[in-house]
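Backbone-to-sequence.
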């Protein structure tokens, strides 16, 4: 960490369920996060970037923050407090079949025995969650929960009685996903049909309890396909997507509500607030989210990446947001390096225009 100045802090966002060319599949934005973590002191990102089913990577300076919590952080309502270890509570949907449930429990036990994670005993929801999947006119995916109160009750029990610091949820998702959409996704095209509904599930618990939360869908294994895209292949490795969620939540920062009285007395050095973010990196056509709108009102550099195409068309220009536009994440890394060093990026180009007079007195 830079000892002479405050930590250089970056937020990496790849919204879920919008068919992002990078980050729209099975943890395929994780290489971007790994690279970006090397050019900043603190990288804040969300489960869609870091979750790769049974694949994950330990990044000590990366904070795993659920999307709703990231929105509240950007708004300045919540701070992020790093922790060495969270005790993770596990919620299983009553609608999961016994054999599939056992697969998930074995995966959870494996993370305890092999990775040393701290989990509470699990809880079953008192009713099936009845997840339903939907597709918006834009092509983005979303979904609904038939029994949200059952999910809330299960989370409350783990928080109040089992003393969970974070919540992992496994909900039974429909197997009868549109065959064309699923086939496109498995072959590296189109939109993840599950992602939008997953966000709805985790948002509910974070909004209700202000606690780190992430979700893994329970599905029956799909038929073997030798032509699967590498970007989707992480989901072909086993019976569950749960391991990456448990690893991410095990050290996810806790949320700290901003109280005016204590805030005015001074900031704690171990809590990060939204106005400390130096730069945000996001796909060029996905700038309409709450977090970006909030960061654009602060002294935060917005960097948009053109070649990470999505199903959306919400550009910074359409919202009046000033942004640095780059073609690739490789270029974005260069912009971050120069920004952190306090260097005007124009100085690295072969031509540099002369200064011009700002006032009319020069005429």
């Amino acid at each position: 960490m830079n000892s002479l100045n405050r930590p250089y802090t970056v937020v990496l966002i790849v919204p879920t369920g919008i068919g992002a060319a990078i980050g729209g599949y099975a943890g395929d934005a994780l290489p971007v996060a790994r690279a970006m973590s090397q050019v900043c002191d603190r990288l804040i990102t969300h489960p869609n970037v870091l979750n790769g089913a049974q694949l994950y990577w330990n990044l000590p300076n990366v904070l795993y923050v659920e999307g709703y919590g990231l929105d509240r952080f950007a708004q300045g309502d919540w701070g992020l407090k790093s922790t060495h270890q969270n005790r993770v509570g596990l919620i299983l949907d009553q609608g999961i079949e016994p054999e599939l449930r056992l697969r998930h429990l074995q995966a959870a036990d494996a993370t305890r025995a092999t990775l040393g994670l701290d989990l509470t005993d699990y809880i079953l929801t008192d009713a099936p969650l009845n997840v339903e999947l939907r597709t918006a006119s834009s092509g983005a995916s979303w979904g609904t929960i038939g029994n949200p109160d059952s999910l809330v009750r299960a989370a409350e029990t783990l928080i109040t009685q089992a003393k969970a610091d974070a919540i992992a949820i496994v909900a039974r998702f429909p197997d009868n996903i549109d065959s064309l959409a699923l086939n496109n996704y498995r072959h590296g095209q189109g939109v993840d049909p599950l992602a939008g509904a997953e966000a709805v599930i985790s948002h509910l618990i974070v909004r209700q309890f202000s606690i780190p939360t992430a979700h893994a869908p329970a599905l029956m294994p799909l038929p073997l396909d030798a032509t699967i895209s590498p970007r989707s292949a992480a989901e072909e490795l086993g019976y569950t997507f749960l391991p990456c969620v448990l690893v991410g939540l095990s050290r996810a920062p806790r949320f700290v509500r901003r109280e005016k009285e204590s805030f005015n007395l001074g900031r704690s050095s171990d809590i990060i607030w939204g106005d400390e973010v130096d730069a945000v990196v996001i796909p060029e056509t996905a700038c309409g989210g709450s977090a970006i709108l909030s960061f654009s009102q602060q002294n935060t550099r917005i960097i948009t990446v053109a070649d990470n195409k999505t199903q959306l068309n919400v550009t910074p220009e359409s919202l009046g947001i000033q942004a640095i536009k780059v073609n690739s994440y490789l270029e974005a890394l260069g912009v971050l390096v120069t920004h952190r060093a306090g260097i005007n990026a124009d100085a690295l180009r072969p031509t540099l225009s002369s200064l011009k007079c700002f006032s009319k007195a020069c005429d």
